[in-house]
Amino acid sequence: MSKLTLRAVMTFGLLMMLWMNAFSQNSSLSGKVVDDKGEIVIGATIVIKGSPISTATNQNGEYTINQVPLGKTTVTVNMIGYSSMDLPIQIVSGANVLNFNLNSSTNDLEEVVVIGYGVAKKKQITGSISSVGPKEFNTGVVSSPDQLLAGKVAGLTVNRSGGDPTAGSTIQLRGPSSLTASSSPLYVIDGVVGANIELVAPDDIVSMDVMKDASSTAIYGSRAANGVIFVTTKRGKAGKPVLSYSGYAAIERVANRVNVLSAAEHKQFVADNGLTVAASETGFDTDWQDEITRTGVSHNHNLSLTGGSEGTRYNASVNYFNNQGIVKRSDLERVVARVGIDQNAFDDRLKLALNVANSMNKSNHVDYGIFNGAARYLPTSPVRSDDVAYAPYNGYFQVPGRTNYFNPVAMLNQRDEERSNNTLLASLKADLTIFKGLTWTNVISYQQNQFDKKYYMHRTDFDSKALGRGFAERSNLKNIDKIFESYVNYNLTKNLHSFDAMAGYSYQKTKNNDGVVASSVGFMSDDLGGNNLNLGTLPDGYNPYSTYPYILESLLISVYGRVGYNYDEKYLLSASVRRDGSSKFGKNNRWATFPSISGAWRISRESFMQDQDIFSELKLRMGYGVSGNQNIDPYRQIIIFGPQNGQFLYNGNWMNAYGVNQNENPDLKWENTSMFNAGLDFELWRGRFGGTIEYYNKETKDLLYEYDVPSPPYQFNRLLANGASMSNKGVEITLNAVVYRNSDFSYNTTVNFARNINKVGSLSSNIENIGVSQRYEGSIGLDGWTGQTAAIVLPGHALGTFYVANYMGYDEVAKKTIYQKPTGELVTQDQISAPDDYMVMGQALPKFTYGWNNSFQYKNWDLNFFLRGMYGNQIFNATRADLSRLQQANVTNISKDAVEEGIFETPLISSSRFIEDGSFLRLDNATLGYTFSTKESKYLKNARLYVSGQNLFTITKYSGVDPEVSLGGLAPGVDNRNYYPKTRSFLLGVKLTF
User: Which of 81, 234, 835, 983 is 20 to 30 Å apart from 223, CA to CA?
Assistant: First the structure.
């Protein structure tokens, strides 16, 4: 044997001895896990603290871990429904035994939920409140925090009808409940009522609590009829500074297109049907939708720092968001900066919280007419032409004399609209503990919004308003909101009895539209756009301030209070009242009172429930309350004078005429919404399965509505008055389950379902002899569709009721479409009289909405996907109607659907032919992530990398671009051509904590 071989054998033998010695220093650990009743606990996770060694209990509640290092160590056991437990142990050579006796946990019930002017434990809640945290938020390119909640809360509809990064969302909670006022919920951000949601970056949000029933929202009185959403942001914590970064980069593409003919298909159709296209409009292959769209690149970055001592804590963050729209020249750029300081003083009896947030938005907007143009413009026409005839349009191809026919690329590039929006919020909160149980809170906040808009139409714009002279408009407006809140909270617990009380005062002064709006024409050059209005040359009679805004000031003063009682956390009762006085309403109705009462019975706390193992929580809730809606402009209750069309001669000079533009109504008052709510909260098998079932009945009275009135005796022909009514009834179900869980793998799922039935009541006002029996809404405005509407507001029916002609089919021989009158008579299109021959033919509001969230975790990997949708809603597809003009295919493009349908009669009336099923199921987002181990890193505490897709697919029968059209207003569910395409996005993101 050579020396080298001998040395190798000796080395190998030495390594074997060392390995065997190391192995002998390890031992095994085993035991059993039972609960406080002696029942075995299956699937509990056992972890050697500070190491990756773990296992789970088997069907007998037993566990075994081999090769446990010798010496002192700590063993941790975790299980849903039980309190986590740490036990120290000295591991010796051989077999070691460690048993666990777990206590039932009510961690979920101990969670703190934000309520009006305070907080409460989840188990103490008597109203309907849904809480959503960062783990449940929607992932993707989110331009506004409200989109984080889309589909996550039963009964809350967050509808963003299109992919425009500059557009907001339509939000409804438990159905529409107003005919005139806004339906948006009230936002309360870190205790500041009415704060702008754009002041918060999604990565800074800790939780969003949605108050849904009036027994919860009544404490906010006149502003809470549409629900209240509490937003809680990150605060500083005592300890070492924590630096966090999160960011992503994304690409967005058009998810779906208008299905119109290509150049080749159009050329073939024209030839097959004996149509002739003008020579100037043929010979080219232009995809107009491609010409105006692009692949959008977006990115988001959030940097935050928290830390401090027990006495002084701080938080600071800055967020940069850049969302490039899929339509060229549309984008949004936002910077949000937040700073917070929490200071304790006088032995922690005084707690001060200072918050300053600033949001700076800059956006570029496009004229939505480009979408109609991109669908209708002939694909055989050129984008530009060298012909001298098009020089006045800067070489863009145009067709003079054709109605509503604009080159979309020209419109896109010859209209500039830039907006900036700067919002500042500063608040100071002081909590003083007067004595144990009594806290006095004062909050002062100042919010200022500065809005600036520059709009310019080039001198070569095809529109007659700008052609040859240009048109510019500039807006600069400021809104200021000042709030002072002062309230006291008192809590007393004695034996099994607990009592709490709150009383407060609120003062809010608002000043909006403080600024100027001006326009000008007659520019010699387009170089300066809308920056210098004075460079225009105004023609005689041109009024540059025709849309000049008037300042809107309002004052809201309130007193409010709440009392609560619970016995042994078993029987709970809460009552509140708020008295609001608003300057927005008539002198006879400035003040209103909004009461509420609610109670809960925690059945699971009863003695007869203690010997069962199924329900770990069972709570029955009931409540009733009244809230209001004052979301209208100030001064709607007084007489207003303004300029009239025309002038008069006075002392030899022509003077502008002034007259009444608004009638006085001293009885104008709030909209009142009363709601009964009943709910059942349950948790089974110690948290393995749980959920909530809700029933509500919401009645809204004294709706604000604008009526036609005779003139005289009224000085103006319109009057805003109260009197109409509306109801919403529904059921909401939320179910969550831990489907499977062990030490390596877990699967959790949550499903929510909401069914709402909306019905319009009376449309009569509270003023004698003023009212309407019905009202037609949803003006369509297609070429040749004079006076055509698609919807009706009708007592006994829901908002969004389609009221159109009943389409029966197409007569191939006569080449006529056939309709049925309400009398049953079959007639042709020219024999239909609108709207006398129309009928109720569909409904825009869905029968129910749903969402299904799924979360998987395998070791360091995590996967989440979320589906949502709605069922039973219908859409009036005006876009399809506009693209169904087969006889006019020589002057406008048509859809492939229309070609397949083969109806050679131009539609000129609203009919059920264009009402389609709008139900859909959408894979809203899917996210795959990996969390890296950072135990070996001195500075990095957490690192996660993830990829995400948004709007990955949609299952629907709807033939339009997207079934998720707007559900707001009095005519929801109308797809009327001007539609920014929905996007499909893919992103790569990272989250780091130092």
Answer: 234
Q: Which two tokens stand for residue 528?
A: 């300066």
How far apart are the C-alpha atoms of 518 and 516, rounded to whole Å?
6
Q: How many CB atoms lie within 10 A of CB 396?
A: 21
Q: What pairs with residue 250 in β-bridges?
A: 298, 987
Segment 861-887 shows an average pLDDT of 96
Rounded Cα distance, 733 and 821, in Å: 41
Euclidean distance between CA atoms 966 and 830, whole angstroms: 31
Q: How far apart are the first and last CA of the chain?
A: 57
CA distances in angstroms from 564 to 125, 439, 575, 619, listed in the order given: 10, 16, 6, 17
Q: Give 213-256 as a DSSP string.
A: SHHHHGGGGGG-TT-EEEEEE----SEEEEEEEEEEEEEEEES-
pLDDT in tens, 850-866: 999 999 999 899 999 99
How would DSSP label each residue in 487-536? EEEEEEEETTEEEEEEEEEEEEEEEEEEEEEEEEE--S-STTTTS-GGGS
By C-alpha distance, which of 305, 371, 326 is closest to 141?
326
Exposure b/e, 905-942, CB count within 10 A at least 16 = b: bebbbbbbbbbbbbbbbbbbbbbebebeeeeeeeeeee
Q: Which of 980, 879, 874, 854 is nearest to 920 (CA)?
A: 874
What b-and-e string marks burial along 623-635, b requiring 16 or more CB atoms within 10 Å of the CB? bbbbbbbbbbebb
Q: At residue 706, what is the residue type?
A: E
Using left for φ > 0, alpha for ψ between -120 and 50, and beta otherwise, residue 371 falls in: alpha
pLDDT value for 19? 38
Closest among 397, 287, 265, 372 to 883, alpha carbons compared = 372
Overall average pLDDT of the 89-112 stretch: 76
- Cite the DSSP H helix spans in 92-196: 107-110
- CA 465 – CA 367 distance, rounded (Å): 15
Structure confidence at residue 512 as a pLDDT band (50, 70, 90): very high
Give the C-alpha distances (Å, rounded to integers) separating 484 from 161, 220, 481, 554: 37, 14, 10, 15
Q: Which residues contact 307 (CB under 8 A, 6 or more apart)?
A: 236, 237, 238, 239, 240, 241, 242, 313, 314
Q: Are 957 and 917 in contact (CB under 8 A)?
A: yes
The 8-class DSSP code of residue 542 comes to -
Beta strands 26-35 and 95-97: pairing type?
parallel
Residue 687 — very low, low, confident or very high, per pLDDT cuts 50/70/90? confident
Q: Residue 800, Cβ neighbours under 10 Å: how many? A: 29
Residues 465-488 as b/e (b if ≥16 CB within 10 A, e otherwise) read ebbebbbbbbbebbbbbebebebb
- pLDDT, tens digit, for every residue of 282-336? 999 999 999 999 999 999 999 999 998 888 999 999 999 999 999 999 999 999 9
Please write the tens of the pLDDT for every residue from 350-369: 999 999 999 999 999 999 99
- Identify the bridge partners of residue 444 per DSSP, sorted by sequence position: 428, 484
Q: Which residues face 791 on adjacent strands?
A: 777, 802
Amino acid letter for position 847: K
Cβ proximity of 874 and 864 under 8 Å: no
